[in-house]
Amino acid sequence: MKPPAGQMRQRHPHNWSDHFVATRPATGLPPGATPYQPVNDLLAAIGFLTTIPVPARAQRAPLSRMASWFPIAGLVVAAPVVAVLWLPLEAQVRAWLALAAWVAMTGGLHLDGLADTADAAMAAVPRQRRQEILHDVHAGTWAVVALIFVLLGKWILLASPRLPAAAICLAPLLARAFAPLWMAIAPPQPGSQLGQAARPGRAAAMIAASSGVALATTSGLMGILPWSHLLRVVAVTLLTGLSLMLVLHHRLGGFGGDATGATIECCELAALAALTLLG
Is residue 1 domain-resident? Predict the structure, then answer.
């Protein structure tokens, strides 16, 4: 059967027979690109960093492309947290429910990286042994201590009356905006699934970081935070991530997926502390 005018015939990639399927007319886009690629990359970032289901086609986007959309995924994580904190409940109850929503939105993805990284980085053993500990499925003492420290710290800060609820979105936003930067700068960790081919390039990392800061400035434009307070939050988050990147690179011999998750968790905690204590 002859395809409609303006279309071309192509063998279906999943069919070994001689049937043909019609494809869309040429769009002038680069090979492999589609008009919906930015949307797919955004959905891929949301599906990668949250528990929200996304279409299967979006799940195939490489990390090098979806990294630019990490700040938007951070806002998606923040949305239910901020909503819960506006409920008419006791401060401690609101904070506990908000923290539960925070963990549920990420599925504990970064907490798992925090636990594994704490066990490996804090072990008083040679670097090669630390890399083996990093891939051990069992949680050690340092994993438990790190999880308690971060989760308890977030709960206390979320319950603080000095924390502006509308500005809480800055914590997951900035932590994820800077994450591609650490992955692009630091050498890959030996044996990490976050290999060199999958790591975001420096261009994508700079897009993520700059767009994250640009989105954060809306809190200043809307009068949610004074500009001086906003700059301190951005600086604290950036310095926390940079410091952890250097320490983990030294202790583990590189920067992998678990180290990225641990850095995101610690940057979130640092941003909350800056929002609460430096206002």
Answer: no
